[in-house]
Amino acid sequence: MDNSSSTRVQEFIGDPLSDEPEIDREHLKEVFDDIQGDMRYDHDLNGCLNCGICTATCPAAHYYDFSPREIVQLLWTENLEGIYAAMQEKIWSCAQCYTCAARCPFGNSPGGLVMIMREAAIKHGMDSAKSVLRPFSRVMLKLISTGNQLAPDMINADHFPDWGPNISKVDAPLDLLRQAIPMPTLNTTKTAWEVNLKTSVELFTIWEETGVLDQLETIDENLFDVIEDFMEEKREDLEDWEEEQEEDDDDE
After folding, report:
1. CA–CA separation, 155 vs 6, rounded Å?
2. What is the pTM (predicted TM-score) of this model?
């Protein structure tokens, strides 16, 4: 029997008993190449003694099926199948506290590597990324429309069910209570504070130039379209304001 052509490398990843389509190895390599090609990769991955200090000190490892050591080992050995599998759930358990980076004798940063893997998951539109980021869509919309990540009108029982009975403490007539704040700009419940129009446009431009919006379009195309419409209006408003200022300066 000729075993010269045999290999232990999987051509596909997937459960043979599942109806989910198999993942072609070329796609696995494409995902890994994006991770390995990140400029932070070589800084965050220097080797591994398999000592387990990172996992022993990891808060998330105590409560979830997550091990920083496993992440490092998968990347260090270039286990494409294992890397892809970890990106479906495990990488989203990391709290990004970077205790692992502070304790690793080799100077690895498993938390940093997880961040790179998360960004790759977003880039490739993985269902895990869409599921995790979906609850943050209202935060992103609030941020780009008002310049605030959170506002009083977002704090209610429907949005924070995990608060349990404590949510009742903020179940109050917020519109009335906000009127008691001395600064008129803080009387509204739609924003935590007023943000300059120019600042909003600059924030959007940063998202645009750094590729954040491209990632958002991959994860939530509808939200991307709404934000694009918002910012088109804001840019027009800013242009009108700047023209008015120039006219006022000319008149003077």
Report:
1. 59
2. 0.71
